[in-house]
Amino acid sequence: MSLARRPALAWLWTALVMVLVVALDQLSKSAIRKSIVPGETRNVLPGVQLVNTRNQGVAFGFLPGRHVAVTLLVGLALLVLLVYFARHRDKPLIWLPTGMLLGGALGNILDRLRAGSVTDFVKLPLGWPAFNLADACITLGVLLLLFVIEGPDRHHQPPPR
Which residues does the annotation mark as catalytic? Predict the structure, then answer.
Protein backbone atom coordinates (compact mmCIF):
# COMPACT_ATOMS: atom_id res chain seq x y z
CA MET A 1 0.00 0.00 0.00
CA SER A 2 1.34 3.42 -0.91
CA LEU A 3 2.32 5.89 1.78
CA ALA A 4 -0.17 8.39 0.34
CA ARG A 5 -3.07 6.01 1.07
CA ARG A 6 -2.00 5.11 4.61
CA PRO A 7 -2.79 8.53 6.15
CA ALA A 8 -6.20 8.55 4.43
CA LEU A 9 -6.88 5.10 5.89
CA ALA A 10 -5.87 6.40 9.32
CA TRP A 11 -8.65 9.02 9.08
CA LEU A 12 -11.13 6.33 8.02
CA TRP A 13 -10.18 3.94 10.84
CA THR A 14 -10.32 6.82 13.34
CA ALA A 15 -13.82 7.72 12.17
CA LEU A 16 -14.98 4.09 12.38
CA VAL A 17 -13.68 3.69 15.94
CA MET A 18 -15.23 7.03 16.91
CA VAL A 19 -18.66 6.08 15.50
CA LEU A 20 -18.53 2.66 17.18
CA VAL A 21 -17.66 4.18 20.56
CA VAL A 22 -20.41 6.82 20.31
CA ALA A 23 -23.00 4.22 19.27
CA LEU A 24 -22.12 1.74 22.03
CA ASP A 25 -21.92 4.54 24.61
CA GLN A 26 -25.30 6.00 23.70
CA LEU A 27 -26.96 2.56 23.54
CA SER A 28 -25.58 1.56 26.95
CA LYS A 29 -26.66 4.85 28.57
CA SER A 30 -30.14 4.56 27.05
CA ALA A 31 -30.49 0.99 28.34
CA ILE A 32 -29.49 2.11 31.84
CA ARG A 33 -31.89 5.08 31.84
CA LYS A 34 -34.74 2.76 30.75
CA SER A 35 -33.99 -0.09 33.16
CA ILE A 36 -32.59 1.40 36.38
CA VAL A 37 -34.35 4.03 38.44
CA PRO A 38 -32.00 6.80 39.67
CA GLY A 39 -30.73 5.81 43.10
CA GLU A 40 -31.27 2.09 42.49
CA THR A 41 -28.26 -0.25 42.54
CA ARG A 42 -27.85 -3.60 40.82
CA ASN A 43 -24.98 -5.95 41.61
CA VAL A 44 -23.46 -7.44 38.45
CA LEU A 45 -20.17 -8.92 39.62
CA PRO A 46 -18.55 -8.97 43.06
CA GLY A 47 -17.68 -5.33 43.71
CA VAL A 48 -19.22 -4.05 40.46
CA GLN A 49 -22.61 -2.38 40.47
CA LEU A 50 -24.84 -0.76 37.88
CA VAL A 51 -26.39 2.56 38.92
CA ASN A 52 -28.15 5.42 37.18
CA THR A 53 -26.50 8.70 38.12
CA ARG A 54 -25.92 12.06 36.47
CA ASN A 55 -22.58 13.82 36.22
CA GLN A 56 -22.21 17.49 35.31
CA GLY A 57 -18.42 17.43 35.28
CA VAL A 58 -15.89 15.73 33.02
CA ALA A 59 -14.75 12.12 33.37
CA PHE A 60 -15.24 10.62 36.83
CA GLY A 61 -16.99 13.76 38.15
CA PHE A 62 -14.04 16.15 37.81
CA LEU A 63 -15.07 19.87 37.61
CA PRO A 64 -18.77 19.38 38.48
CA GLY A 65 -21.17 22.21 37.67
CA ARG A 66 -18.72 24.18 35.52
CA HIS A 67 -20.38 23.84 32.10
CA VAL A 68 -18.36 26.59 30.40
CA ALA A 69 -15.06 25.36 31.83
CA VAL A 70 -15.90 21.76 30.91
CA THR A 71 -16.87 22.73 27.36
CA LEU A 72 -13.71 24.80 26.87
CA LEU A 73 -11.48 22.12 28.38
CA VAL A 74 -12.97 19.35 26.21
CA GLY A 75 -12.90 21.54 23.08
CA LEU A 76 -9.26 22.49 23.62
CA ALA A 77 -8.24 18.88 24.30
CA LEU A 78 -9.99 17.69 21.12
CA LEU A 79 -8.38 20.44 19.05
CA VAL A 80 -4.90 19.50 20.33
CA LEU A 81 -5.64 15.83 19.68
CA LEU A 82 -6.80 16.48 16.10
CA VAL A 83 -3.77 18.64 15.33
CA TYR A 84 -1.44 15.99 16.73
CA PHE A 85 -3.23 13.26 14.80
CA ALA A 86 -3.14 15.23 11.54
CA ARG A 87 0.64 15.67 11.90
CA HIS A 88 1.33 12.08 12.95
CA ARG A 89 -1.40 10.07 11.21
CA ASP A 90 1.19 7.80 9.60
CA LYS A 91 2.31 6.57 13.06
CA PRO A 92 1.26 2.92 13.52
CA LEU A 93 -2.02 2.50 15.43
CA ILE A 94 -2.43 6.23 16.17
CA TRP A 95 -5.96 5.95 14.77
CA LEU A 96 -7.12 3.65 17.59
CA PRO A 97 -6.61 5.92 20.63
CA THR A 98 -7.61 8.96 18.57
CA GLY A 99 -10.93 7.33 17.64
CA MET A 100 -11.49 6.21 21.24
CA LEU A 101 -10.82 9.69 22.60
CA LEU A 102 -13.00 11.44 20.02
CA GLY A 103 -15.80 8.90 20.45
CA GLY A 104 -15.70 9.11 24.24
CA ALA A 105 -15.73 12.90 24.22
CA LEU A 106 -18.55 13.05 21.67
CA GLY A 107 -20.60 10.48 23.59
CA ASN A 108 -20.46 12.63 26.73
CA ILE A 109 -21.03 15.86 24.76
CA LEU A 110 -24.22 14.37 23.28
CA ASP A 111 -25.47 13.69 26.82
CA ARG A 112 -24.68 17.24 27.91
CA LEU A 113 -26.48 18.71 24.90
CA ARG A 114 -29.50 16.46 25.38
CA ALA A 115 -29.87 16.48 29.16
CA GLY A 116 -27.38 18.98 30.62
CA SER A 117 -25.50 16.14 32.31
CA VAL A 118 -23.87 12.80 31.54
CA THR A 119 -25.35 9.42 32.46
CA ASP A 120 -22.88 7.35 34.50
CA PHE A 121 -23.66 3.77 35.42
CA VAL A 122 -20.65 1.62 36.36
CA LYS A 123 -19.79 1.75 40.06
CA LEU A 124 -16.64 0.12 41.42
CA PRO A 125 -15.70 -0.41 45.09
CA LEU A 126 -13.52 1.75 47.33
CA GLY A 127 -15.33 5.02 46.59
CA TRP A 128 -14.43 5.10 42.89
CA PRO A 129 -16.83 7.52 41.16
CA ALA A 130 -19.41 6.08 38.76
CA PHE A 131 -18.43 6.21 35.10
CA ASN A 132 -19.67 5.17 31.67
CA LEU A 133 -18.36 3.61 28.46
CA ALA A 134 -17.28 7.02 27.10
CA ASP A 135 -15.21 7.67 30.24
CA ALA A 136 -13.61 4.22 29.96
CA CYS A 137 -12.74 4.85 26.29
CA ILE A 138 -11.25 8.23 27.16
CA THR A 139 -9.12 6.70 29.91
CA LEU A 140 -7.98 3.75 27.79
CA GLY A 141 -7.50 6.10 24.81
CA VAL A 142 -5.12 8.29 26.80
CA LEU A 143 -3.11 5.25 27.94
CA LEU A 144 -2.98 3.85 24.40
CA LEU A 145 -2.02 7.24 22.98
CA LEU A 146 0.88 7.47 25.43
CA PHE A 147 1.98 3.98 24.41
CA VAL A 148 1.75 4.81 20.70
CA ILE A 149 3.65 8.08 21.17
CA GLU A 150 6.27 6.86 23.64
CA GLY A 151 6.28 3.12 22.91
CA PRO A 152 8.88 1.27 20.91
CA ASP A 153 9.27 2.45 17.35
CA ARG A 154 9.17 -0.64 15.12
CA HIS A 155 10.86 1.22 12.26
CA HIS A 156 13.74 2.61 14.30
CA GLN A 157 17.04 0.89 13.74
CA PRO A 158 19.39 0.63 16.71
CA PRO A 159 22.59 2.62 16.33
CA PRO A 160 25.55 0.68 14.92
CA ARG A 161 28.07 -0.58 17.46
Answer: 120, 135
